[in-house]
Design goal:
Shape: globular
Radius of gyration: 24 Å
Oligomer: single chain
Helix content: 25-40%
Number of strands: 27
């Protein structure tokens, strides 16, 4: 679908506002948004961009690595330029704004940069060399924020800015991602008791989008991010932003309407901006954020992939993974999945609640614990607790501590190769790229399970470890970069081209990517077994294949794959065939 012209876009924004707010509020919001759009159009230089196979996104904290005498963002920039500049073009810098808790996700000031990380000058410098993804943490903000302070001060401008309820109201229908109380008690400046909605923690107070003035302030923030260099906007925990008493308060129609509206306002300023939604919920609910394929998210986090991939590697059986993959459909060729295995959070299991059965989920939970990981729980109506996520570095969840690094390396590379070969855009967590293990010291200090995969690294130390020949970090990093470099030079891995998942033996996960030319394709094969596997590719084979990883030719349709081997097969054209 072509982008709307200016009049169509303004008409849509007006209609959207009228579907959410009363007539008077909608009219005032529309006038303010029109002014906001004009202001930012004058400040933002829009440049057309279409994602391709060359787009790979590194997920990292702004202070992921540090070096004495240098701001953290400057150190990160130096690392990126020295180590991955040639193969990773985009960087998701996790919230780098001033914050009070949750490693950045409890924001005090949306428009600032945390002084401990750096400044807007550092962000601008990073943007010279990399496309940037900013976080729109717009479901909630810190109780220490100026907005909430004004709310508690009973400032009329901030009246009804946060969701306040009588605690006697029945809220049992609300879906909870945590075990903490839904309402938190605060005392305002007049000594009054205020019970405020806190979906994630007492320090993260939920904004009230029923007040159109909240929407206006949030739109101003998102447009500022574009002015400051964001090419992609990640809408964090967006499924929870609209509250309606008597409902489950997740995925409500107003939520989808707000996302569509935000997209149109953003595209009125810069049509090339990519919107990505982060909704860690069951898979069918998650993909609803694609909308009709042209009106909501351009990318959706593929949350079912990390737990399914780990389960399949641990069990040596791709049956569930392949069956799920075969259901992956996209509503248009303008949207795609954001594929990943690890992030700053744990490995969420809600996305596979309807894919893995109870015994299989228990297998995952027990494997995580046996491998040195932890498990976080959430409140579920009728149950005391339900597993929400597995807190473990991805390399450790795949291999028991007693198993050797040779196996650990093979399994980790296998998992990351699948992500690189999956249809869509790959997201790579910094710690996965450099092979970091579980960081138990941080859990002991913070008493937070998620800290296990959030270690901050000394630049000099990581540089030394990456250069140590034969070490786990060195071997993983080199192999990972090799695979990325291969991917970004193969047009068949374009995130918007046609794909299918093949049914081979249960040990092998197979993806077929079609190129833009009718005779182009790649078949990516991944052996999930620790033993050799015979593969029969005869039904899909035409001529001679070349493995673009090893450059080995396959002359026959039936061949052997080595334990945890990866083959990305491309048919050789006439004149390219070579004798063994």
């Amino acid at each position: 679908m072509l982008e709307r012209d200016s009049k169509e876009r303004l008409d849509f924004i007006k209609y959207s506002l009228e579907s959410i707010y009363n007539k008077e509020d909608a009219a005032m919001a529309y006038d303010a948004i029109a002014v906001l759009i004009k202001e930012y159009q004058e400040k933002v230089e829009s440049k057309p961009y279409v994602m391709t196979e060359k787009d790979v996104i590194l997920i990292t904290y702004g202070d992921q690595i540090f070096h004495e005498g240098e701001t953290a963002l400057a150190t990160l920039h130096r690392f990126l330029n020295e180590y991955v500049q040639e193969c990773i073009n985009s960087v998701h810098i996790l919230p780098f704004y001033p914050y009070s808790s949750d490693d950045g996700f409890s924001i005090v000031d949306y428009k600032g940069v945390c002084p401990l990380k750096g400044s807007w000058k550092n962000i601008k410098a990073l943007n010279q060399d990399h496309r940037l993804m900013f976080d729109g943490v717009i479901n909630h903000m810190s109780q220490l924020s100026h907005w909430f302070e004004k709310f508690l001060a009973n400032d009329p401008e901030y009246y009804n800015f946060f969701t306040e309820l009588d605690p006697s109201i029945d809220l049992t229908a609300v879906i909870r991602p945590r075990t903490t109380p839904l309402l938190t008690e605060f005392i305002d400046d007049d000594g009054g008791i205020r019970h405020v909605w806190t979906t994630f923690s007492a320090d993260q107070v939920d904004l009230n989008y029923a007040n159109y003035k909240v929407l206006l302030k949030v739109l101003d923030v998102l447009l500022l991010y574009i002015e400051k260099g964001a090419s992609l906007i990640r809408l964090d925990a967006i499924a929870f932003i609209w509250k309606e008493i008597g409902t489950n308060c997740v995925h409500l129609p107003q939520t989808h309407e707000l996302i569509q509206l935000m997209r149109e306002v953003i595209h009125a300023v810069a049509p090339e901006i990519i919107i990505i939604t982060e909704t860690n919920v069951p898979h069918d609910e998650n993909i609803s954020y694609f909308g009709n394929g042209s009106d909501e998210a351009h990318m959706v986090y593929n949350f079912a992939l990390p737990p399914l991939l780990a389960f399949s590697i641990l069990s040596g059986d791709t049956t569930k993974l392949t069956a799920w993959a075969k259901t992956l459909k996209l509503p248009s060729d303008k949207v795609c999945f954001f594929n990943f295995t690890a992030s700053h959070d744990g490995i969420g299991v809600r996305a596979v609640s309807n894919i893995l059965d109870k015994d299989e989920l228990n297998f995952m939970v027990n494997s995580c614990k046996a491998h040195g990981g932890l498990v976080s729980y959430r409140s579920v109506e009728g149950e005391e607790q339900s597993p929400y996520e597995l807190n473990c570095s991805y390399i450790d969840i795949l291999t028991h501590p007693d198993e050797d690094d040779t196996l650990r390396l093979k399994r980790m590379i296998l998992s990351q190769a699948v992500v690189l070969a999956m249809p869509g855009v790959p997201g790579i967590y910094f710690h996965s790229l450099v092979g970091s293990r579980n960081y138990h010291e941080a859990v002991r200090k913070t008493r937070r399970n998620r800290a296990i995969n959030r270690e901050k690294l000394n630049f000099d130390n990581i540089k030394e470890e990456l250069s140590e020949e034969g070490s786990l970090r060195n071997n993983l990093f080199k192999r990972y970069k090799q695979l990325i470099s291969i991917r970004i030079h193969e047009p068949c891995f374009d995130p918007f081209t046609r794909f299918e998942f093949l049914s081979l033996d249960k040990e092998v996960f197979a993806i077929k990517h079609y190129g833009k030319e009718s005779n182009e394709f790649i078949i990516a094969l991944h052996n999930f077994q620790k033993t050799e596997v015979e593969v029969d590719l005869s039904p899909y084979k035409e001529g001679v294949f070349m493995d673009i990883i090893s450059h080995r030719q396959l002359q026959e349709g039936i061949f052997i794959m080595q334990p945890y081997e990866i083959l990305w097969l491309k048919p050789l054209k006439e004149g390219e065939k070579k004798n063994d």
